[in-house]
Amino acid sequence: MPILVFLLDTSASMNQRTYLGTTYLDVAKGAVEVFMKLRARDPASRGDRYMLVTFDDPPYGVKAGWKENHATFMCELKNLQASGLTTLGHALRTAFDLLNLNRLVSGIDNYGMGRNPFFLEPSVIITITDGNKLTHSSGVPDELHLPLNSPLAGSELTKEPFRWDQRLFALVLRLPGATAPENEQLGSVASDESAITQMCEVTGGRSYCVRTQRMLNQCLESLVQKVQSGVVLNFEKTGPDPPLICDDLNRPASSFGPQPWHSCHKLIYVRPNPKTGVPVGHWPLPESFWPDQNSPTLPPRSAHPVVRFSCADCEPMVIDKLPFDKYELEPSPLTQFILERKSPHMCWQVFVNSSGKQSDLGQPFGYLKASTTLTCVNLFVMPYNYPVLLPLLDDLFKVHKLKPNLKWRQAFEMYLNTMPPYYLLPLKKALRMMGAPNLIADTMDCGLSYSVISYLKKLSQQAKIESDRLIVSVGKKAPQETSIKVKNHSSSLSLAHLRDFKQLLHGITGEGPLRLCDINFKEFSGFQVALLNKEVKPQSYRNAYDIPRRNLLDQLTRMRSNLLRTSLKLIRGQDEDYLHSIPVAQMGNYQEFLKMMPSPLREIDPDQPKRLHTFGNPFKQDKKGMMIDEADEFVAGPQSKKRGISGDSSSGVTLKRRRSMSPLLRRPHVPPGNSNHVAPGKSLAGVQQNLLKPIPQHKGERKKNFYALEQWFSNYFWLKYPLSLIPLCSLHSPLDLAGLSPIYFNYL
């Protein structure tokens, strides 16, 4: 899974304009978006992880790290602003520390146990800068220096701040500001001459000198091709040169002296398994020291191992069922020289200095060999000192039939004594795959002392804590300074302590002669320079014709108020309306407004349910916890569950809330002879006469009279309006008719 880190220069010099009409920072943002679109064409880009680092002071330089998603990355990229210094060294150190955050926790570096090329996190750092002078708070350095002190635990185990699977590329913007260059050169883009170029070459990358937009697109397409899974090695020749091969004109193809292929700093491709998507390997590259069980510490390793190759032709060795690793070399002068020899059946052995127990050069652990089609050169990684081990294993299976004699066992024990102890585990695994699992005893140690093992475990725990701390700090904004304190570099007395202070004061006010020799211009004791609010953007026009037509009246008002000074303002040239105006794009950003609000006070009654804040209406209640009954009454959900079980036998559902029925809906018990409906032979007038018959007003019969009045209203509405305009269930009493509109009474 490739990791792509974009390191963008956010110094103030990135605000300069180009011939395109945009700033350098805008060009850098566009380059990032174009790169991501080009990278998305590759199906392998689905597992890419993008990070964003700027030149801000740590820890505010990391804008998007390990936990941020793609949306956060794009939002932070869009909101970048160019203000600050060109602290390239600190920014590079921050980027490398961000990549090395989880390496000790995951054990990917495998310190003291050999270097496994298949344990890798392929990373590409793409720096986009303008290539101007480096600036720092203490001055202007001439060279690029990375800070040596790193807060990351375990950084002392590697000499360099980077690792062998991390490469640095730089896009140095040299776009002119006036006009586009006429003679645009096509083809390969040259490297830049800035300070970052050397750092790129050390890590295995390169820099690009970008002068036009077309050249920028070409560089981005080249960078997309550079995103490969692999590690960087230093190949150096040892011993004499190979025999010269003459061409058709009987002239030697190479001359004496150092050649480019003698030392190459190139990548070897580590291809992932097509089934699992993860690289798989068997054998490590040896360390450049012999492990000592009595040593309390580990010597620091270099980021890129130095692999020496001997030009003596040897036949490639391999036996059945013995696993080996095969890595393709990146095209280089070394691969070109090997392919020109046209010897696909011969190989050159490779070594690592001080890897053996006694010899300085060590024993061979593999070989370089051209492919049979002469299209590439491959590095074959075998067991350590494989010219001794392979004949022994061949005799074990073919001669001894897995029943070795004493002589064979003595030779095998002698080989194990000359092999680094960290090769025991992969050798056991290989012998188990071949069908000989019991050749190596389980009591043999890996070679590291107890103090080293405990130290590595302690470093892993510290790295985990530091990783959590840095992940939390990602995305935090730097606090804005309210003022700048001016240091007092003067050691003389203050002006107020001088004897002739009054005369000097008269000279400053113009009442007397001014003596400039007595004034100390460097005296600013306790003086602070206030900073303007960055959110308020003053419009300072030097030319009246630069003012847009739509802003003429507003600008004239500001000029008049500034001239007459009729109002008190924090900033001259700004009126009250302008101070409170914000862009349209920020008007709906309510979340940022909530972050700036102070924390609310606690509720007076903590038993009251908390109101969920809803935008626009602070008194709006949550409708999810509300229920509506048949009478359009809002009843809270939890209250309906607390109803007791009614003792009435007619109530069917005990948990259902008993609604108070309207008196209009409660009908008294009517004998079977009495009916409110019109009989087939009676007229409507006769029924109405019965309804209007006077009712005796006795004190004991008030309740009956009330029900009789309700019956009159009910019968009247149902007889005159079978489909009544007024729902009777909403009339709780006859007095509710008083609230009806007069238009309803016109129908009665």
TrEMBL record:
InterPro entries assigned to the protein according to its UniProt record, in alphabetical order: Beta-barrel_INTS6 (IPR057413), Integrator_subunit6 (IPR051113), VWF_A (IPR002035), vWFA_dom_sf (IPR036465)
All copies of domain VWFA, residue ranges: 3-227
GO cellular component, one term: integrator complex
Disordered as annotated region, ranges: 637-659
Superkingdom assignment: Eukaryota
GO BP annotations listed: snRNA 3'-end processing
Pfam families hit by this protein: Beta-barrel_INTS6, VWA_2
Listed PANTHER family: DEAD/H BOX POLYPEPTIDE 26/DICE1-RELATED, INTEGRATOR COMPLEX SUBUNIT 6-LIKE
Protein name in the entry: Integrator complex subunit 6-like
Species whose genome carries this gene: Gouania willdenowi
